[in-house]
Structures are given as structure tokens and as C-alpha cells.
Amino acid sequence: MSDLFPPFAPDPDEPRKRLFKPVPFRVIVPNIITLVALCLGLTAIRLAYEGRLEPAVFAIIVAAALDGVDGRVARMLKGTSRFGAELDSLADFVNFGVTPALVLYSFVLHELKSVGWIAVLVFAIAMVLRLARFNVMLDTPNRPEWQKNFFTGMPAPAGAITSLLPIYLHFLGVPIVDASVAPVVLVYLLGLAFLMVSTIPVYSGKTIGKYVPRHWVLPIFVVSVALFGLLVSFPFEMLTAITVLFLASIPVSAMRYRRLERLEAAAAAAAAEPPRAETGA
């Protein structure tokens, strides 16, 4: 048997196998937050089909809050990565495209049968198209600085939270679970899908909060605590108010965007105009 497997010495010139470099934990932390948000979104679907709408709504809202946290944590820890960006987009599609549409289908849109399901498909597809456009626009950093303060179309988390308005109204006592009201919910959902894929500018507020005047610090603390208390004590009243105010702000954002666009065009035209030669008397 020793002839079949003769001993041999390893070749000293043989290249060593490449080992994968260890990944810093600061890169993993934002992805863990994203995965927790994804778990909440998927759990919201289960809760909705079990008839537990209230925790399903809260799961989607917490997922939206975590979506706003993971990117900031990644930038703060200097843990941004291409993998994290792709994972975040896929999680957003599930949490804010698939989950709210299915929750609404289990809530009232199932009354419309196939037509209600078509609305679910349209909303989900509009969400994935909106996310794809957002990812492409990240690769065009030459936009004017003022344009970075606006989203093109309704952002994904806002689309999800806004789409749940019929459920908020249901918990406030408005009779929503009715076959006669289902078409209204369907039109509302399709309208949100249109806002997401449209080019209507929506104010993002990204530049707010970089620097705060010192005399505004304490009032901001007080207002923040008051808003948190109201949200905890009257969640559906506050969510309804936030949704209505957000929808009302969209025309204001569009008008502000057009005004800044006209100012930029006027400034560019003035810069391109050749200087007039002065004539002596």
C-alpha cells in the first residue's frame, strides 16, 4: 500500500492560497440594522394576515426609522460598502413596496379581488422602479447643490408610511373595511404609485440640522419630547396628521424647486451674456 501513496515533500515554490481579509465590524453593523429592518417588514406581513394590524403598522414604521438610521451609522463609522448599498435597496423594496401593499390587500383591497391585486402589483413595481432610479441618480454627483435637497418623486419610506393612511383612519373609527370604500383605497394607492415614479420634486430636508443656532437648542429639545409623547399617546392621530401634512407639502416643494430652477437659469444666462463695452461721453 505504501507504493500506492508514496510520501512527498511540499513544493516550496507553490503559491500559497489566498485568505480572505477579515471584515471590520464597523462595516457589519449597518448591515445588521438593515437586516433587522427587513425582518420587521416580513413580520408585518404575517401579522397583517393574522389580523393583528396594529403591530403590523408599528413594524413597518420601525423599519422605516431603521432605514433612516443604517446609512447614517455607516457614514459615521466609515463602514459604507457596495454590498451594504445593494442590501439596503433590496430591503427597501420588501419593506416599503411589498409589505405595505400586501398589508393593504389583507385589510381591504381583497374585497376587489383581482383588481385589488393589480393595485398591489402596480404599487410594488412603482417602488422598485423608484429605487432603481434613485440608485442611478447617486452616480451623477454633478447636480447643483440645491437639487440635492430634493427627492425626485416620493421617497420609499414616505411612500410606505403614507400608503397606510386607510389603516390609520380605521383605528380612528372611520369605516374603511367596506366593499364600497375599497375603490377609494385602490385609487389612493395608485395615486401614491404615480407620485413615486413621477419627477415631482419632494423636499428631503437633508441640509437641515447641520448647524443649529444656540438659542434654538432648548426649544428643539422641548418640541422633540412633546412630539414623541404625542406619538406614543396618540399614535394614529399623529400618523394621520403627519401623512396629511406631508401630502400637502408636495405642491409647496414643487413650487420651491421651480423657483430655484428659474433662479439658476437666470444666473447662468447672466453669466453667459458678454459684458457691454462702456462708451465715453
Summary, kept brief:
The protein contains nine helices and two strands; from the N terminus they run ααααβαααβαα.
Structural features, described:
This protein has 281 residues and is mainly alpha-helical. It has a single domain (25-207, 230-266), classed as Four Helix Bundle (Hemerythrin (Met), subunit A) (Up-down Bundle), CATH 1.20.120. The chain contains nine helices and two strands. It has a two-stranded antiparallel sheet. Helix 3 runs parallel beside helix 5 (156-163). The protein is globular, with a radius of gyration of 26 Å. GO terms for molecular function: phosphotransferase activity, for other substituted phosphate groups. It is found in: Membrane. Belongs to the CDP-alcohol phosphatidyltransferase class-I family. The chain crosses the membrane at residues 25-47, 53-69, 90-109, 115-138, 150-169, 181-203, 238-255. It comes from Microvirga thermotolerans.
